[in-house]
Amino acid sequence: MSTTKSLRGNVSPEEWQQRVDLAAAYRLVAHFGWDDLIFTHLTARVPGPEHHFLINPYGMLFEEITASSLVKVDLEGKKITESPYDINPAGYVIHSSIHAAREDAQSVMHVHSVHGVAISAQKNGVLPISQQSTFVLASLAYHDYEGVALRDEEKPRLVRDLGDKTYLMLRNHGLLTVGPTVAETFLSLYLFDSTCRIQVAAQAGSKELIPIEKSVLATADAQKQAAMKGGGGSLAWPALLRKLDRMDPSFRE
Asked: Is 29 in contact with 42 (CB distance < 8 Å)?
C-alpha cells in the first residue's frame, strides 16, 4: 500500500485521469511480467499547454505505483511536483526526446521483456509469421544499441530511427511503443510483446516457419483498424481496468 500523499483534488481532472491510466499501465506491465524490477519506464503527457509528463518514481516496483506517486517532470527532467524519489536518467533521455519530437506521442512505453529482448538480439528482428506480427510490421522501426541511454547525443538518432512509427525495436535492449493515449500505447505494447513471445516459441518448435505473404502484410494496418473498431483503447482498456480493480484497486490512489 502506497504511503504517498494523495494528489486527488490537487491537480486538474484531466491530469488525474492521466495519472490513473498511467498507474494502471504500470500495474499491468507488472501483471504480465514485462517489468525489470525498477529499471524500465512508461510516460504520459500531462494535458495542458506545458510540456510536462508523468514518469515512475525511481525506486518503486511497478506493482506499487499509484496515480499520486507518479512524478511530474518537464522536458529537462526537472521535477514539477514534490517527490522523495528521483527519476531514471535513462528514462528521461529516451522519453523526453520522443515527447519533444512527436506531438502525437502522448504516451511512450519502454520495457525489457524477456521475449522482447530475445527478438531484439536477432539479426532479422520481427519475422512475418503470425497475425500479431503483421500488425507490428505495419509500423515498425529499429534503433541500434549504443549502451545505456544516458547521453543526450543519442536523442536525435532515437527520434530519427523512430520516425512516424508506432513500434521501435531497441536492438539488444527491448521494446518501445508510442501512441495518442495511455490505452492505445499499452495495447500496442501488448501486441509487440505477444509477437515476440510467439516468434520465440515458433523458433523453438520448428526450423521451418511459414512466412505470411507480402500481399497480406500490405493490408495489415487496415485489417487491424477494422478488427479493433479503429483502436483497441475503447474496447480492451476498460476491461483491463476492471481486471485491475478486482485484483487491487490501489493504483487509483
From this structure: yes
pTM reported for the whole predicted model: 0.93
> Cα torsion for 225, 231, 235, 237, to the nearest 10°?
140
**Secondary structure class of 85 (helix, strand, coil):** coil
Question: Phi and psi for 178 in degrees, rounded to 5?
Answer: -130, 160
10-residue mean pLDDT series, the chain (253 residues): 76 97 98 96 94 95 97 91 86 89 96 98 97 96 90 91 97 97 96 98 94 88 68 82 97 97
Structural domain spans, the chain: 13-252
Of 194, 185, 47, 176, nearest in space to 133 by CA: 194
pLDDT at 207: 84
Helices (H), 206-235: 214-217, 220-227
Distance, in Å, from the CA atom of 199 to the CA atom of 195, rounded to the nearest integer, reads 6
250 is written with which cell numbers? 490501489
Name the fold adopted by 13-252.
Answer: L-fuculose-1-phosphate Aldolase (3.40.225)
Name beta bridge partners: 108.
43, 178
